[in-house]
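Entry type: protein chain
Record version: 2
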Amino acid sequence: MAVNRTPNLGLHDWLGTEYVKREEIVENFRKIDNEFGASGRVGDLSNKIGILNDTTMKQYEQFINALGFLKQDGSVVIIGDSITEGYGLPYYDQYVTKLFNILKNANGYPNDFEVNTNFSADQTIQINGSYSIGTKGASKKSLILQPGATITFTGNVQYIDLIFDKTPTSGSIEVYRDGILYKTINCSGPSNPYAHSFASTPSNHFNTATHTLKCVDSPVEILGLIRLQAKPRRGGINLIRCGVSGENTAYFSDDVTLEYIKHVTDYAGNPNKLYIIALGTNDIYNPKKAIPTSQYQANLEKMIQKLSDTSNDVRIVLTVPPISHEDVWPAILEPYGLYRKAVYELSQKYNLSVIDYSYLFFTENNWYQDGVHPNANGSTQMVNHITKSLAMGVSKTRVKTDWIRPTLMGNWVSIGNEYGTVAYKREGDMVTIRGVVQGGSPVFDQIVFRLDPSCWPSTRRVIRTANDQNGATLVIQEDGYIRFLNGSPNWNSLDCSFSI
């Protein structure tokens, strides 16, 4: 039974340790219904938050099911610009926040984590004391705290941890709950540019409180703030927002930035990820950042290749950005349609799902603040379009690699020349090996080389290949080792293909 009541309608307001009674929930809903019925504001409320009809709820359910590969602590990472950052909108009206709430509430799969990587834009935290914005981290906007500086926020949070730049000279972060110190995170030690403290000592409280992080002893550079909500169960889907206002694909295709983005989920227990690349508005419409479609496509392709991880279930979704109000924000270098075409060419090449915002009429429906940044209604439409676009499933990324030349083991040597140097590559679910070797050992069953983990087969493969006698038997093991069971002492071909 709730002890506290909300200040406006007197609704039951439960603490984390209080038992929830059914009649209290019914009473809350009746009060809300009576309030809006009497005031005539039901229609206005529907426009602001969107009444979820049966079709929408079914769509959300399908969307959550499509993310099944992320259950048990996998991560959704949204890489974007000012639209993803939430330009001009309160925190709860931003499309990423609304998506966070769907993941948090739908079908019993709570989103436990919120990871902040852009401190200068986050309206939910306050920074006091001496600090500066650095250039590290997934959004290249790390927070450098000087001794005495603090970060403060309010919330129902059990775990508070950091992603930080560990150095031998870094200081520590003291963590307070309602003014009481309950843990200290030591940020010094051997150099590690993406160290994380998770999971350190929890607060062991389940109700709303004011949390303060204080830098002590020496400066600390923070790349991300991990906030794990206090909930009775774990194993949800994490959501990480990497949004940087005014930036385009050139910014995010930088090698260092991509490495930080890949490591921002190192704290998560599940390495499976879904990257949503929500870029393109600045590439098309920003007079200072616009680039040709050829470079736009090349940058996106580099991001796809760098973020792909065939050792785990990592999938990538591309987006076609919204069409601006082109009387106000005209395309700078090339027509919008050519950028859209570039996205679909990559989706065909790599088998990627696409969220295409060109199907939404932002200008005609007055869903923009200024002709390019969505308003609250626009952000709701974006979330609905995301869930609709991915409700039928998220395509598995088809990875392509260049030819890889392995290091041969034992006495094996590659004949090379016109016979072809030993090499292999992956395209989609198929791996192709080429080349001819000689040497080995008079006693066969010797390892020739080991494949990269991205090319390991799901089960052992036994393949017949050519040699100068009656053929050789090639075995490809589940752990990537390749060996001949039998063959010729003169030469043996590795030419074959297999599915992983």
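Comment: The two ends are 55 Å apart (CA to CA).
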